[in-house]
Amino acid sequence: MVYTNQSQIFGDIIKTENDNIVIKYFKEFQEQITDNLVDTIILGESEYLKKICYWIVYNAAIQFGVIPSSIHGLYEARGQGLCGGFSVPAINLRTLTYDLARAIFRVAKNLNAAAFIFEIAKSEIGYTDQRPQEYSSVIMLAAIKENYKGPIFIQADHFQVKASNFFNNKDAEISSLKNLIKEAIDACFYNIDIDSSTLVDLSKSDIPEQQKLNYQICAHFTEFIRKIQPKDIQISIGGEIGEVGGKNSTPEELHAFMNGYLAQIDGLKGISKISIQTGTTHGGVVLPDGSIAKVNIDFDTLKKLSEIAQKEYKLAGAVQHGASTLPNEAFNNFPKVGCAEIHLATQFQNIVYDYLPLQLKEKIYSWLHQNFANEKKPNITDDQFIYKVRKNALGPFKKEIYSLPREWKTKISSVLEEEFAFLFEQLNIKETKTLVDKYIKPVVVKKDKDSFLKETTKLTDLEGAD
Fold first, then answer.
1. Are 47 and 73 found together in one domain?
2. For residue 151, what is the DSSP state?
3. Of 80-84, 291-295, 358-362, which range is least confident?
4. 25 and 169 share a domain?
5. If you count Cβ atoms within 10 Å of the first and of the last residue's Cβ in the chain, which end, N or C, has fewer?
6. Which residue intervals of 65-162 are DSSP H helices?
7. Is 336 inside a domain boundary?
8. What is the pLDDT of residues 265-290, one digit of tens each?
């Protein structure tokens, strides 16, 4: 059911007291209200009603014990050698976000896991049509629906500086990204990955000079985040030294970045982790027959740089991007080499596409051929073309995919629930709830109704990492 007016939402289950939301009947809220709020957020036409829903969702989440949090405390403990032996999965949900988040929370409860992150990249916000407030609200509703309690971690992934924009108009590019960071923090993204690795200049012979713009801009955004972060919340910030899909990172690059960065931030709390390149690409490399090429990931580099990051700079370790399409046998290696965090996205999208009804899939592919024909190069097959561009249909077809019959969504969710369970086991995050409870002290940020009703900054350029 899509709410069409405010009175429909409140009924007898929710009431307002002094402009605050109070849940009167928790079980009834879970059973009767949660799904309708998601329907209204995703399918509704009224922006005002969607914002009212966001206000209700946030207040309900706090009352249900679902607290958006920063993972910084856990990563700080890891950097001090107080915990380890696991790799935190950071999961990008590009479609069916509510249903797949519910599956993740079910797996987490079964495994007593809590060290996992939901994230969305700058580029994904654009092509999946999921603004930060929508994304975080749907995830909070999924936690409520599955009766998951405790800190939840929502992350801005690859908030990337686009090099061409930067060199054309530096101030405009920085301002645009600051607007997006502010929007994300307002939407309870208390974990933010800054990707200024696009500014690394490998043409320079001196490694510190190669990394100079990268660490300067990362430091600039660190200062900005520390200035606007909510009281008593230390946002977890990530940096990046090697653009994913480029050359593999080296210890010299890590030292050059960190030494320059630390000198720039002048005693502020800095990044908690560092993303590196080890041989992967976003989305994997698709072969002419549509299969994914095998990747030889450089686990030695990942281990070496994680050790340097932890022992010399007290970071949680190195972060692995572009990993979801790796073969299953690769995943148990990440905890063994000290990988702090691993980003997973494309394979979940692939599974959704595998299980979409044929009629809808054909409709989507026909739309892609019409709207992205300029990307169909003579040297690539049709399978390669579709694989490359089909992420771009997730926004335009968001409502149609979400409106699939329940049996279809249940099937997709069950397949992905098995995938999430496998990954959580391989990454060794079972029983991490104890660690999260020990090192994360949730902070409730007070938000009034007006903060949800304000205008959202609309960005025209949301290009970035895949």
1. no
2. E
3. 291-295
4. no
5. N
6. 72-79, 97-111, 122-127, 132-145
7. yes
8. 988 999 999 999 887 554 455 545 55
Q: Are 58 and 18 in contact, with CB atoms under 8 Å apart?
A: no
Report the distance separating Cα 268 and Cα 222, nearest Å: 8
Residues 250 and 364 in one domain: no
Distance separating alpha carbons of residues 398 and 96, to the nearest angstrom: 8
Q: Distance between alpha carbon 166 and the CA centroid of its chain, in Å?
A: 24
- Which single residue is written with the structure tokens 């059973």? 31
For residue 464, being part of any structural domain is answered with no
The predicted pLDDT at position 289 comes to 56
Task: Give the pLDDT confidence of 237-248 residue by residue, as tens digits.
Answer: 999 997 655 678
pLDDT category, 60, cuts 50, 70, 90? very high
As a whole number of angstroms, the distance between CA 338 and CA 306 comes to: 6
Residue 449 counted as domain residue:
no
Q: Which residue has the tokens 């994300």?
A: 184
Looking at the structure, tell me whether residues 335 and 384 fall in a common domain: no
Q: Which residue has 């702090």 as its token pair?
A: 340
331 and 371 housed in the same domain? no
Q: 344 and 386, same structural domain?
A: no
Please tell me the total count of domains within the chain: 3
| Pair 173, 199: CB distance under 8 Å | no
Q: Which of 395-409, 419-433, 441-455 has the lowest mean pLDDT?
A: 441-455
Query: Is pLDDT of 147 > 80?
Result: yes
Could you tell me the pTM of the whole model?
0.94
Q: Which of 11-25, 132-146, 190-204, 227-241 is predicted least confidently?
A: 11-25
> Are 228 and 80 in the same domain?
yes
- What does the alpha-carbon distance between residue 116 and residue 121 come to, in Å, rounded to a whole number? 16
CATH, residue 261: 3.20.20.70
Residue 366 domain boundaries: 357-393
Q: Same structural domain for residues 224 and 242?
A: yes
Tell me 154's DSSP state. E
Mean pLDDT of all residues in 96-111: 98
Contact 141, 194 (CB under 8 A): no
